[in-house]
Specification:
The chain is mainly α and 284 residues long. The chain contains 10 helices and no strands.
Length: 284
């Protein structure tokens, strides 16, 4: 069971899909073989077998639906966390522009690096590269917090330090929650048990088949079940699958930070070439 769980978690999806379909076809053929031997020995079939296979396939579809819904919920949660983190980073960057130099530039630079790291983390498929990026993310949070402490200590005005501190807390919390969500999966034991039940259902389907010729309808049905099973695993893999949560929010906030470096939000200095207006008393 442990080996099957590891295979379901790490195997390439196309290869895994073909393997699952082959297992189901083999189980169905085995059931058909058992059925033919029983018919030769007993000389007849049972009219209740159709109800049995209908119940088995119905329960299998129900279990597949529940597992698929569990994977979809985790996908939606990761998508919401990506948007929350992007909003938190953008708010922190804007509030950091109220700080004095050099804290403003340092915090702004760290936020850009932190955002780029999480964008690369969402797109990384190599496990070793992903672990390295996770370590960089943890180090980036520590650097951001150190820079925050150094920035707010000399600030006596709470109207500047408190909003910035709250925004930085939200950024770090959102990043930690997003990393934890990417590590959460449908339990591999659930997927392995579901695969075992699918094989048993395919065996029952073969037991109720009549004749020794291959029929396309049961094979197409098993192919559809295999496709739904692989789609569930695909959605449940944040980095290893083809279906990933959109990163447009992180890309947009990173583009905004790069387009508006520290100092670009400062009001323009008054031009010396423009003459000042005379006082109102002189105009009268």
């Amino acid at each position: 069971m442990d080996h099957a769980e590891g295979l379901l978690s790490t195997a390439p999806l196309p290869l895994l899909g073909l393997l699952v379909f082959a297992v189901l076809i083999a189980a169905m053929q085995m059931g058909a073989l058992v059925k033919r031997r029983m018919n030769r020995r007993e000389g007849g079939g049972n009219s209740e077998e159709g109800y049995i296979v209908s119940g088995a396939l119905g329960l299998m579809a129900l279990l597949l639906g529940f597992t698929f819904n569990l994977a979809i919920d985790r996908y939606d949660h990761r998508r919401e966390l990506a948007l929350e983190e992007a909003n938190a980073i953008g708010t922190t960057y804007l509030r950091a522009q109220m700080l004095e130099e050099p804290a403003r530039t340092r915090v702004s630079t760290l936020l850009q690096r932190y955002s780029a790291n999480h964008l690369a983390l969402a797109e990384a498929s190599d496990p070793r590269k992903r672990e390295a990026l996770l370590a960089q993310s943890d180090e980036g949070q520590i650097r951001l917090w150190r820079a925050t402490i150094e920035a707010i200590r000399p600030v006596a005005n709470d109207t500047v330090s408190r909003p910035f501190l709250e925004a930085m807390n939200a950024t770090i919390d959102a990043g930690a929650a997003r990393v934890a969500a990417r590590r959460a999966h449908v339990p591999p034991r659930v997927l392995a048990t579901l695969l075992l039940y699918m094989a048993i259902s395919a065996f029952i389907l073969g037991c109720v088949s009549n004749g020794s010729r291959w029929r396309p309808a049961p094979s197409v049905l098993l192919a559809l079940f295999s496709l739904a099973y692989i789609l569930t695993i695909d959605i449940d893999r944040p980095n290893g699958g083809a279906i990933r949560e959109p990163q447009a929010a992180i890309v947009d906030v990173l583009t905004m930070m790069r387009a508006h470096p520290p100092g670009s939000f400062d009001p323009p200095a008054p031009s010396a070439a423009q003459p000042s207006l005379p006082p109102a008393s002189a105009q009268r």
